[in-house]
Amino acid sequence: MAPIIEIAHVSKQFRLGAAPNREDNFRELLLGGFRAPWRALRRKRPGHGKASNSIWALRDVSFNIEAGDVIGIIGVNGSGKSTLLKILSRITDPTEGLVRIRGRIASLLEIGTGFHPELTGRENIYLNGVMLGMRKAEIRAKFDEIVAFAGLETFLDTPVKRYSSGMYVRLGFSVAAHLEPEILVVDEVLAVGDLSFQKKCLGKMSEFGRQGRTVLFVSHQMAAVENLCHKGVVLTEGRVAFQGECKAAIDYYIQSISEAQPKQGHSIDLRNASRGSSQFRPWLERLELYTGDLRPFDRILPVGAPLVLRIRFRLEKPTTDFEVIVHFRNLLGQSLCVARSSYDPTRTLEERSGEQELVCEIPSLPFVPGEYQIGIGFSVRNQRVDQIDDAARMTVIESDYYRTGKIPTAGLFLLEHHWQLV
């Protein structure tokens, strides 16, 4: 049986700053013919052509997808994931190569894709259905299920231009999932929805897989990819770096980004660190990491060891209402625990301004061996004003935490516990 999707030597080039393509008129074609010889001579000059105003988002990508496959497309930002999904969804054409799709495809790639902002939610359901190739009777038969799943009954007759980004995603996913395509393509947009709706979406995609339909899922949440997908494809700089079982693909991806992570010292400048949103400004200035005896932290800690974080920041105006948040995640993107300065009942509240420093002491780090990500956030008057999701990395290594010679490796956390035979 032929694969439901065949991707053969697909490449995609984008020209930086280029105007959209359009047909030349007769005068432009005539002038182009006269100028062609001079352009050819100019290209032969030494040094010509070294600078390029184009980039290759994909290079020679080839793999097949069988009917019923649930595949996670994994890679860092800029690796070509979204470009590949746009080619599969026929939003853009490949520069080179060939794609064959045998089945109806529904895509949820960007917030608001396929919606007309002036139309109501009700009207956009029918519009999206028609775009997916459904007849009006088929859409009408599924209409109530779509509305109930999205939970937007109250806003059904409101123009979607008044919808929030989360409402867009809820309606878009509900339409795409309930109109029964053979292939469902979902990009990172699910991250916009609330937690309960994300669970509904993942459940719906799992149901798709059990029904033998094909799902392509792009996400930076590795735990969601691992739970949902059977296979994985890792893209690196527009090329297929790995293809195989999902767990093996995730392990390859995590290993590759760990190796690419620059070595950090114990003192980290946060002023030019990557922020997750343009709304954040650099209130956070420096993070310093120490072990329990105040030796500089060298990125490696034994299981159960203490950790001290010194966070330097600037307050633009005098205030007592400010907070530093330290967020620990594993490399699957799972949130493990949060330390917030407002959680400490002994913290002294006094008005401060200008350069400040808060010290967070963690007596015993409760993680099993593995690599972890430290994020730092900053809030003023209950409003998040700065956030760095990947401020630092740390590796927790094995140790005799329980003093029994038994090395804890299972689960996510260490649990202090006592047993008594009675």
Helix and strand arrangement:
Elements: E1 5-15, H1 26-43, E2 54-65, E3 70-74, H2 81-88, E4 96-101, E5 105-108, H3 121-131, H4 136-150, H5 165-178, E6 183-186, H6 195-210, E7 214-218, H7 222-228, E8 231-236, E9 239-245, H8 246-260, E10 267-269, E11 284-291, E12 300-302, E13 307-319, E14 322-330, E15 335-340, E16 352-362, E17 370-380, E18 383-397
Parallel strand pairs: 3-7, 3-8, 5-6, 6-7, 12-18
Antiparallel strand pairs: 1-2, 1-4, 8-9, 10-11, 11-13, 13-16, 14-15, 14-17, 17-18
Provide the descriptors you would attach to this structure in a database record:
422 residues; Rossmann fold; Coagulation Factor XIII, Chain A, domain 1; 2 domains; five-stranded mixed β-sheet; 33% strand; globular
Description:
With 422 residues, this protein is an alpha/beta fold. It folds into two domains: 5-18 and 54-258, Rossmann fold (3-Layer(aba) Sandwich); 267-397, Distorted Sandwich (Coagulation Factor XIII, Chain A, domain 1). The protein has eight helices and 18 strands. It has helices at 26-43, 81-88, 121-131, 136-150, 165-178, 195-210, 222-228, 246-260; strands spanning 5-15, 54-65, 70-74, 96-101, 105-108, 183-186, 214-218, 231-236, 239-245, 267-269, 284-291, 300-302, 307-319, 322-330, 335-340, 352-362, 370-380, 383-397. Strands 5-6-7-3-8-9 form a six-stranded mixed sheet, sandwiched between helices. A hairpin with a 4-residue loop joins strand 14 and strand 15. Helix 5 packs parallel to helix 6. The N and C termini lie far apart (63 Å). The relative contact order is 0.10. Mean pLDDT is 83; it is low at 47-51.
